[in-house]
Write a structure and sequence with these properties.
heterodimer, A: about 280 residues, MetI-like fold, 12 helices, elongated, B: alpha/beta, Rossmann fold, 6-stranded mixed beta sheet, 4-stranded antiparallel beta sheet, 10 strands, about 35% helix, about 25% strand, globular
Amino acid sequence: MKILPLIALKNRSLSSGYAAIGFVFLFLLLGPLLTPINHTSQNLSVSLQAPSASHWVGTDYYGRDVFARLVYGGRITWLVAIAATLIAVCIGTIIGLFSAYRGGWIDLVVMRLVDVMLAFPKLFVVLLIVGLGASSINLLIWVLALFSWMEIARIIRSEVMSQKNRTYIKSARALGFGTPRILLKHVLPNILGPIIVSSVLLISTIILVESGLSFLGLGIQAPNASWGSILNDGKIDPLGTWWLSVPAGLLILTTVTGFNLIGDGLQKLFDPKKSL
Amino acid sequence: MNSTLQKQPILEVNSLQVEYPVNNSGGFRRKNKPAVIDVSFKIFPGECFAIVGESGCGKSSIIEAILGFVQAKRGSILFEKQDLLKLSPWSFRKLRPLIQPVFQDYNQALNPRMRIGDIFKETLPVHLRDSQTDQLLASAGLSREILNYFPHQLSGGQKQRVVLARALSVNPTLLLLDEPVTSQDLSVAVQIVELLISLRKTNNLTFLLVSHNLSIVQLLADRVAVMKNGQFLEQQPLAQLLSDPRHNYTKTIINQTVAP
């Protein structure tokens, strides 16, 4: 069994996922070096210009440089998705671990709570909360996280269930180790695979939800940008102002596909039948 | 034997009853199936008490009940005069190192993500770690090299030796051996049995051995109980059991056994 095999070139899903995410990551990292223009500075005299030498991906209604907005908007989209995923994974892991290891009525109550949370249509609830509250990046991150931890908790719970009756856990209990130590040092390292896989897949889901919210005007607010809000800018004339919708759409597509491919690849890699 | 009988027992199990819930087609009424029925026995310091019986007769459930992994329905389990079934979880935890299990499935007995060295580090006090690790490895017949290995890099026999060494690292007085050599091939099984015999002498250990194989029991046990369908049919000193079995089932087991 390998320990966190993060690089495996024979695994096609994984290597193409890395390539896609690597490309977008470099774009976000190096983008500011390529353009000196500020993504929020307006110049109405160059409103809605097609791509040119001075504005590589054209300009929007307010004459803001779309390339700069794609770079900075992408950074915000990634920040929101990764932060929300980290919070959701922490909440889901703690609840799943505890619920499964304790079992009994605690498990029963916690899992019914998870069922109730899962029964809410996520996008609509998030829409409602973000719509009612003053829209800010922090609020968006927390709301996305609080409605995404349930899947993680369920996966963790089922993994812990399968581990907790293994002999090495029984031996640890017999040696007199306490529950926190058993959970953190013995159970958790053995279920890291599924946690990583579901986290990576969750990033792409959250990117889609965040882009959807921003597209509807409820996510990231102007003058800040996100890929969803740039798509929104282009919705009046998607063909006429294609440089607003197509690059942003392609970046969302590449990122989501990339994370999904990495998730799939890692899943294959962590599959005990193949990794042993 | 008489000398041991005068001592206080290290473990005394009285009228133990263990039951498991049975799923009856999803109905609300839960039925329980007894796995251990009214079992009583005593184990004295330094002896090896064995329970023999076919698979599923309830032998391992006794060990699980002693370790507190299954709830006993009735009875008492007195370890050094304390009833394990009545102890608070905290007091039981403090007592746990004294009773160490060695399970049949050595493949799953070690955390697959921990190196052997780290497995020992977990149980040994920091200031004595190096010297005690060396001592444990030597007593289990293992070399220092394996400290850097992960469990999957070891052979079956090595894994079972590591399991034994880890159990000894917390200075137990009672070892619960649940089919300790059943899944090993013959030559390794013999080595493990020899190791158990020598460890028992050097560490002054008491054994509760559970096995379906009378040949292994013959090599280790002082007294033997024969178990069938959750009940003890008879318990006798080994020599007496072999020469004068009282129950037909015991005779069948003896007849099926190849001399060790």
